[in-house]
Request: fold
Amino acid sequence: METVRDKTRKSKIEAYFAACDETAERVVLKNGNVTVRQTPYTLAGLSEHLGIPQSEILAAARTGDGGGAKAYADALRRIGRYIVERALLGELQYSVAAKLLDELGIGEKLPPDESEKRIVIVMEDEEGWSE
Reply:
């Protein structure tokens, strides 16, 4: 059975996500495409909003101990899903997404793509751009 404290905690967590969503704005890019920008979901933002240290949120979500453990775990999964979605859409760099997912304790450490380590210099000018 859910206690009043658990319901309050859930409503505060939902208020955090709603506050982030309220900042969403449509931006027309120079190339004519339209994108939506908003305050991203982060563990730091959730921590600040709730007034609880990040370490306590992570510990409660991982161990399942303490009040609101399920609510914290659900919130962390939602933040993780948001990070992955932004990375897949190309709105977030791989290295940043990996760091944020590592902070949440989810995701695996993947080696960087070989193409990210290599610089290619082309010395030919077949189109004649240099003239």
The chain has a mean pLDDT of 83.
